[in-house]
Amino acid sequence: MTSHCLSLEDLSKDDMLYLINLSQEIKQKLEKGEEYKPLKGAILGMIFEKSSTRTRLSFEVGMKRLGGDAVFLSTRDIQLGRGETIEDTARVISRYVDVVMIRTFEHSRIELFAKYSSVPVINALTDLLHPCQVLADLFTIREKLGSVEDVKVAYVGDGNNMANSWLIAAGVMGFDLSIATSKDCAINGFILNRAKDLAKNSGANIIVIEDPVEAVKGADVIYTDVWASMGQEEQREKKHVLLKPYQVNKELIKHAKDNFIFMHCLPAHRGEEVTADVIDSEHSVVWDEAENRMYAQLAVIMKLIGRDR
Question: Catalytic residue positions?
Answer without folding.
Answer: 103, 130, 133, 225, 265, 293
